[in-house]
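Minutes, project check-in
Item: structure for the 248-residue chain
Input as provided by the requester:
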Amino acid sequence: MIDRPNFELLKIIVMENIVSRLLVRDWTVITRELHDKGFVIVPDLLNQVECDELVAAYGADNRYRKTIVMERYRFGLGEYKYFQYPLPELITTIREKVYALIAPVANQWMEELNMERRFPASHAAMRELCQQHGQVEPTVLILKYNTGGFNTLHQDLYGEIYFPMQIVLLLDQDYAGGEFVITEQIPRAQSKVNVLKPKRGDMIIFTTNFRAAKGSKGYYRVHMKHGVSPLHKGHRHSLGIIFHDGLS
């Protein structure tokens, strides 16, 4: 007789694996690059099975609270869906653990720019802060592009309270084009463009709005936006994890 699998135990093992993959990375190096550049790629966070499961679940009706067709709002060409609470445990684990690891960088930026805002150490406390300002809707989303699809440059703010960093995880591999693009508006200069080509399973941590940069007279703000360049062929899915909630 074959025992039925213990699904609760399997979920615990998966979550522990994700945590282990995060904690074995050199976060001193990661957070230094994030501070200095406003973005960093953490390779191979998700395995192929996890990516495939997230892509396959895109068509599920019971996970999402809203679907956005980008073309309708002139956001680009593609589609994305916002998850509803409770989030899948895999996503919750990544959201909570990564937040705790990068919150010190966010507070360092606030201090360097002489801004009063400070962010709590835990994601649970960050969600409470959002709730106090009427921001209760989850902003985690999964995005889908077909050939020709793209996403215009933008910032994901969603309300008065926003965490200055977010993450995206690439879920596909067999496509061309569709690069992740980050622009920097340097004061009194032309914009700088960063073009990133992460692989399936890679995580990009990047700034939501601005970063602190050091100049000859101290630190100043560099405003940043992100988007996706046109997809030349194939299909591209990505998971966007934003740490602040949005207005209802």
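Outcome recorded: Residues 7-247 form a domain with the Jelly Rolls fold (CATH 2.60.120.620).
No further action items on this chain.
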